[in-house]
Amino acid sequence: MKRLLAPALTIAALASLHAQSPGERAVDWNRLRPEILERYRDLVKLDTTAGGETLAVDYLKKVLEGEGIPTRTFALDPKRANLVARLKGNGSKRPLLILAHTDVVGVQREKWPVDPFGAVMKDGYIWGRGSKDDKPVLAANLVTMLMLKRLNVPLDRDVIFLAESAEEADTTGVGINFMVREHFPEIDAEFAMTEGGGATIEGGSVKQVNIGTAEKLPARVRLVATGTAGHGSAPRLDNALIHLAAAVEKVGRWETPMRLNDTTRAYFEKLAAAGPPEQAARYKALLNPASAAGAQQYLRQHSPGEYSMLRTSVVPTMLKAGVGPNVIPSEAEATIDVRALPDEDIDRFFAEMTKVIADPAVKVVPLPRIRPASPASRIDTEMYRAMEQAAKSVYPGAMVLPSMSTGASDQAQLRAKGIQSYGVGPASTESDATDYPAHGDVERLAESSLYPFVQYVWNVVTAVAAKKN
Ligand SMILES: [Zn+2]
């Protein structure tokens, strides 16, 4: 049951609140909707493509400080600032960090039916760059901070709000890398929550909620083939292009070993235990060593993302060779996007790759890694349980499962520092996720997905951080 609470609460009213579960701490969500929408749209309207992030920091600073929440900004590049706000708890538990990145990827304006920074509302959607990635999380975190303050919620642990720049591409290290390296005490926490999860709508209701608990590590390599240069009229056996082409084919078709971790085992086990019988049977087959190979092939064809969750994946993405049609080049190279499982021994894996190529004319050259290797976050923590509980209460009837992202995020830096970090995201239909994805030509979020998402974030934060009697 939800109860209405006026912003100015008496101590007595607060005391009576303690009787209810902290996760259910009462907020009148209907009354809060216009404000949620306004804050979210304000954020989508800011053009925070790389170099514009300080626009968001200025906005957040004004809103937070306007309600008495002090903020600090940390900027290696003045145009790409980060902002931290902290609500103090009684110190009986270590802090909770809620973070979101403020930057968005670029736009090709001609592809947009509306102004990409207009936060236009049309057909039940809010349209705009960042409407999915990552301004729903930013807005949910902001509203959560405002409500904690307004309701004066007593806290067992500090709640730290971080708005960070440069998640999409931090070539100069101004975002999470800067914060972790130079200002770690400002954001150090037991738990963190940010983008990296999500939920799927089917037939009008949320059927599945993914809690992001792990991610793969980008560990790219170049394959460099060398041979003797020469005239295109005289074929050579050591033609670098021929050697490279063979190597690309071998690694591209390489069936790397399947290996599950706690997250992916729980993920596939849950899918095997629920859902339509035909689908459940496929996941069951995957978990049975006798039938796993066939099930993997099915996923390889029909669900590349899940296929990738099973293994360190190897994907050729770029080729570079040749200076003219009549010239045999002395060198040819390919870029291979390797996405390693969190526990992969990368050097051993590259040695394995060299064996698969089995050609001394082709060298495997690792590219510099942008993110650290990061262990999966645990699925037996207070935080994970609170997220599971909150998901079940906000999205009744949905299956809740831990998930490993095949992409990479700023959670890697946090996990590498020992913070148990978890991913969330607003719900979307399969077709919306495909046709209007994060980073897509056009991005949009269903308005109806925004409000429950904010409620979900709020429930998690209060369950984990609010004072328990
Ligand atoms: Zn993002």
Largest sheet: 6 strands, mixed
Identify the overall geometry: globular
- What structural class results from the helix and strand content? alpha/beta
Number of strands: 20
Oligomer classification: single chain
Spatial strand sequence of the major β-sheet: 1-2-6-3-7-18
Spans of at least 5 consecutive residues with low confidence: 1-24
Bound molecules: zinc ion
Question: Can you tell me about this structure?
Answer:
The chain is an alpha/beta fold. Helix content is about 35%, strand content about 20%. Helix 2 (about 30-45) crosses helix 4, helix 2 (about 30-45) packs across helix 16 (about 445-465) and helix 13 (about 380-395) runs antiparallel to helix 16 (about 445-465). The relative contact order is 0.18. Mean pLDDT is about 95; it is low at about 1-25. The chain binds zinc ion. Zinc ion binds near residues 101, 133, 134 and 167.
